[in-house]
Design a protein that fits this description.
271 residues; alpha/beta; Rossmann fold; Alpha-Beta Plaits; 2 domains; seven-stranded mixed beta sheet; four-stranded antiparallel beta sheet; 11 strands; globular; magnesium; OTSB-like
Length: 271
């Protein structure tokens, strides 16, 4: 029986350096980082060990832990198992929802009307591309094509992007087998930087796997303060090009990373 995945020695050293700061923000995406990507998004479940490690990190002094996801808050909370009044901050809908905010997301009349129009047009799109699934979110809709043959999936994604382009006020965000069409959008990068500033984090860790996470990596690195930018530790999960400083292979390796980070943070805060 094989042991836990081995982490790169440079990554282990970077985790130790990060953990030594007095106040830190530890943030991760959910799908593709803590939970494997699946055909039906509501079948997603975190791999063993990841969520407990995050909860344990959140219990340590000077440590803020956040899930930053494209999912809406309610399914993010349900699927991750994060407690309603627990220590984890949940940032949903690519930054447009925050678990700490009263009342959730508020859309104006124009945005509500746009979503109604979008629902009608997506109904037509489903008729044209059988097997396409549409996820309802408070601020938008997400077209899912996982499980479709590659040529059919690409045609459906192209059609969804064209639909989004017809409505210039929609924010169109492509991902792995998905296109999100949002009437209200913040972006993971903006949300991460704002959260780090809000909690006074001296150092930030962020792990993600998708195109939307690249915006987070870019925003954290794009800082006029070079010293602060150097204290932002980013990790890409899986294959593909990335702007992240480090990479791990999959969700199991991410669990090993979080356990290493937890051990380093416990040692640092015990001093």
């Amino acid at each position: 029986m094989s042991g836990p995945p081995q982490l790169d020695t440079a990554l282990v050293a970077a985790l130790a350096d990060f953990a030594a700061h007095d106040r830190v923000l530890v943030a991760t995406d959910f799908d593709g980082v803590l939970a494997p990507l699946v055909v039906d998004p509501m079948d997603s479940r975190p791999v063993e060990g990841g969520m407990p490690a995050l909860a344990s990190l959140a219990d340590l002094p000077g440590t803020t832990v956040a899930l930053v996801s494209g999912r809406a808050l309610d399914p993010l909370r349900e699927l991750s198992g994060a407690a309603l009044d627990g220590p984890l901050v949940l940032i949903g809908s690519h930054g447009a929802e925050d678990s700490r905010a009263e009342g959730g997301l508020a859309l104006d009349d124009d945005q509500q009307a746009l979503l109604s129009t979008l629902d009608d047009e997506l109904g037509t799109l489903r008729e044209e591309h059988p097997g396409l699934r549409v996820e309802d979110k408070p601020a938008g809709r997400v077209v899912h094509t996982r499980g479709l043959p590659e040529d059919e999936a690409q045609a459906a994604l192209d059609a969804a992007r064209e639909l989004g382009a017809r409505h210039t006020s929609l924010e169109v965000t492509p991902g792995k087998g998905v296109v999100e069409l949002a009437a209200a959008h913040v972006g993971k990068g903006v949300a991460l930087v704002a959260l780090a500033d809000e909690v006074g984090a001296e150092a930030v860790f962020y792990a993600g796997d998708d195109l939307t996470d690249e915006h987070g990596f870019e925003a954290l690195a794009d800082d006029a303060d070079a010293d602060r930018a150097a204290r932002r530790l980013t990790v890409h999960v899986g294959d593909g090009e990335t702007q992240a400083r480090f990479r791990v292979a999959d969700e199991q390796a991410m669990v090993a990373l979080l356990q290493a980070l937890l051990d380093a943070r416990r040692a640092a805060t015990a001093r």
